[in-house]
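S1.2 Input.
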Amino acid sequence: VSSINPMARTVCTHCGGEFPPAANSAESKTGPTSSSPSALAEESAKLAEEEMQVGRRFMETGDYVMALCFFRNSTALALLEPDVSQEKSGTERLELIRTCEREGRMVKRKCPDCGGTGKRVMRVATLAGEVEEQEAYGQSCRKCRGSGQILCRGTVEEWKFAVGRAQTQYVSVQKTRGYV
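S1.3 Output.
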């Protein structure tokens, strides 16, 4: 005879084997023991610090959006810590999140002055009275300093795409680390 509540069953309906007694122990019915909250706080503090270190490594390589994922997770883990003296680390986390959001929104665009060539473009008047643009050979563009690209704030769509791509990559990294 099977019970309506699948959690109340003591025998597997598939194979007929009995479940181990730990599934019905008093601890599983009452919840965690009194020593568990401190163990949880210690573990979450350790994991939060690990997430901060990994986030800093991504930040050093210039992958600010990926670092943002780690800093956000570190902040969530820090909320599990009952210690109220986390003000300094909390302020640091918020500052790192703001930096990542600000820097992560910056994208490279083709320089509007040189058209992406990196060379200085001069406007020259012809004898016919027309104005032509010519490259000044040997001189770099003043706006992009010869790189052909400038940094500017990206669009909302670019930001959303970058965050989505980073979250997918973040899940992959966490799976390889054994956390998902």
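S1.4 Remarks. The beta strands are 106-110, 119-125, 131-140, 149-153.
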